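Q: What would this chain look like folded?
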Amino acid sequence: MRWGASYAAVALVLGGVEQASAQTVARYQFDIPASVRAAAIQAVAHAAGADVSFAEPGDASLHEPIKAIRGKLTLAQALRQALAGSDWYVETAGNGQIRIARRGGNSSDIIVTGVRDAIRKEDSNLLTRSDTPLKDTPGTIVSVTQEVLASQNTTSVSEALRNLPGVTYTPGPPSQVGSRGDTTQGASFTSGLRNSAVGGDAPTIDVESIEVLKGPSSVLTGTAVAGGLVNFNPKRALGISDQQFDIGGGSNRYTRGSVDVGGAISEEDRLYWRLVGLAEHADRQNNGGRSPHSYVAGAIFAYRDHGWKIDASSQFYDTRIVYGKLFYDDLATNTVKPVTAFSNENDYYRVKSLAQNLSVERDLASSDHFTLRLRSRLRYQYAEQTLQNLLYQGKNNIGLPQLQDTISGNASFSKNKQFSSSTDIYAKLATGPVTQQIIVAFDYAWQNADQLARSTNTFVPLQPAPVLATLPDSTTFGRNTLLASRKDYGVVVQDQIAWGPLHALLSLRQTWFDLDSRQQFIFTPTIINNNGEQRISKLLPTGGLVLSATDWASIYYTYQKAITPPRLNVLVAAGVPFPPSISTGHEAGVKLELFDGRMSLTADYFRKSSNNQPFFNPANPAFSLIGPGQKSEGFEINQSGKITPTLFLQSGFAYATSRIDVPLISAPKYQANAWLLKSFKVGDGEIDVGAGGNYQKGVNLVLTNFTTGVTTYPAFPQDYLRFDAAIGYKTGPLKLNLTVNNLFDRFNILTPLVANNLYQGVGREFRLVLTTALPRSRR
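A: My prediction, written as structure tokens:
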């Protein structure tokens, strides 16, 4: 390893995951008397539960006298005080990293790597575009980390989201993630960049965390975020050698193998690598569906030298998602009944995706009082989606003495290209008691969609029960072709101001949305064209204020505005696109750091409104009427962290209701979730015991009579309740983890949307996974 005079004088590595204090935003009580710099750095590291070594112990700056370091500070703040007056300065760099850089020469050489307590995420950039402690963020962001997912043997988005309070999941495609009475309309993001619309439920094996920003938001993306912004934070190559392998099995002949390895290509040149892979397959799901699988391969690289911070990755995945058994809500008896006219056990949708990611960051200028940074990110994703399914449309009178079960069959093949980019100029200016973080940013997302589809209708018993429709080709009668191009782009000007206990966020975004679509329904020789164009331009403000009343409590308020374009080809009249929906959110709450900062708690009250909701037009079913939108309000409590160093709890409660006569659709009035993880020392090993559950109640469905045009909102008669458990034993590099989902095998329906198509939730299933994790080491 090279360390010349222009490189690091200190190497500091934080301890393992049991140290809840090993986090870049956690605060510690320091009382370090005046001493020489080297002794002070050692004392700071000891107080934070870290180890410190000096690569150049003879460096003169390490033996200079410094002032006392006292107060409740983060590790980075304490190190800044220890290095004040020298040529070195400290910055937090995200992902648990702290870097010490020398002014001039190699100005951003990373020499301090802190591996934070990975069981919870304590900062985010979803609302502020820069890594900000959640305590200082004026909004609600809930997240789940890879360590929690590993304790549950979870590899899918659908199972991961059960850990997030007030968040619902309805299978797709596109899968709907909802919060506060609205949905994401299938939109999701990776590192703040838009994912492909047909990317499906991406596996979670290669993410560090999944987070959801509640309420409407426009700071990152501008459009399609009224129901919350779902963001995946991918794993990175950090110069820490992780050598992890696992194999596993479970119910329904489930098998699994995964790998996560990494190291240094060249420590001298600060060039690092990481490989992540997963293969899992089952014969069937115990709630219906055959042969689900996920195959993932990812290559990750990083470069840290000469002022550059560069991350690049390639990811491929192949997932086959199957559905639970179909049920319907019998409104006459107010009960949930199975669909018996046909079987949907062969329904599926399969996604193949290849994505490339690049992130570049460089400090253009840096000092104790001023930092100017350029950040740029790019993402390209190509995805193919194959869908074959059968849907139940209820009993209908088609002029026969007997009511007919109406079944629609759908088959499609879609290709989607998605390019997303973002460039930020970030300036941090400290003048006396005031610190400002100013951002000027431009982001651009382009999507090209190409779909070939067909749909059929069958009436049972007049006709035989249908089987899956064959995939269409260029000769299929009744095929539907769609070519669409979509652009989302915008300019953001933002200022974060910290003045003593006050933290303010002021942001203004000018957003643009362009859509061109060409759709044809081909019944040779008849061709029906349904083309559409839409142009949207909107100025969207965001503002928030946080008052830190004490070092462990703060209160906040936020105002957010977002715009949601209509679904593709939703028209008011021929050639007249449906207007976009504007969402406005108000939120106020309190944030607490409890148990010496090991646990965070947020309690909030929100009010949200939107306009321009499409309604069925009985006079012309091809078009939609413009409805008044939704108005909701509610409160939430979200909590995550360690009560003791060995007892972790992530839980929450959410209440949401409509402020108008029309109820919220597919949005539970009451939601609760919890996951408790307790560790016990047993001889030379350790036992982890996990237990948790999810509860939903008070969902309203939407049901439209296409003959009369009357829409009703029946209350769904069944609550959702499941309990899960886990037990793991770890000794040395080995860990054996057993999980049981839906421990009591309770019959559940996934968050429903329409009365006729209700999917059964997972039944009782178990997974047993053996993991080998070799010790981490710098290379």
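The CA atoms of residues 15 and 303 lie 24 Å apart.
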